[in-house]
Design a protein that fits this description.
By secondary structure, the chain is mainly alpha-helical. The protein contains three helices and no strands.
């Protein structure tokens, strides 16, 4: 079970990733709150899909790799939700 600090950092990374993904995917935006929720879910998806891969390549602090992974996951999630919403 993660400690409280890890959970807070995870949520902050997810929120930043959701905001970034919303800026990158302008047409697929769900508003600020929706993008923040998608960012947290995208952080989970990105960690599951790309976690070990990106952290090994990105130089610098681990938080940068975490934000990149979470943002990529949020972009993927926004894209998929956008596809489903159009049908």
């Amino acid at each position: 079970m993660p400690d409280l600090v890890s959970l807070i950092v995870f949520l902050i990374v997810g929120l930043v990733a959701g905001w970034l993904a919303g800026q990158i995917m302008k047409g697929s935006s769900f508003g600020l709150v929706g993008n923040l929720i998608v960012g947290v879910l995208g952080a989970i998806l990105g960690g599951w899909l790309l976690g070990g891969f990106v952290h090994g390549i990105v130089p610098g602090p681990a938080i940068i790799g975490s934000v990149i992974v979470a943002t990529l996951g949020a972009i993927i999630l926004l894209f998929l939700v956008g596809l489903i919403a159009k049908k």
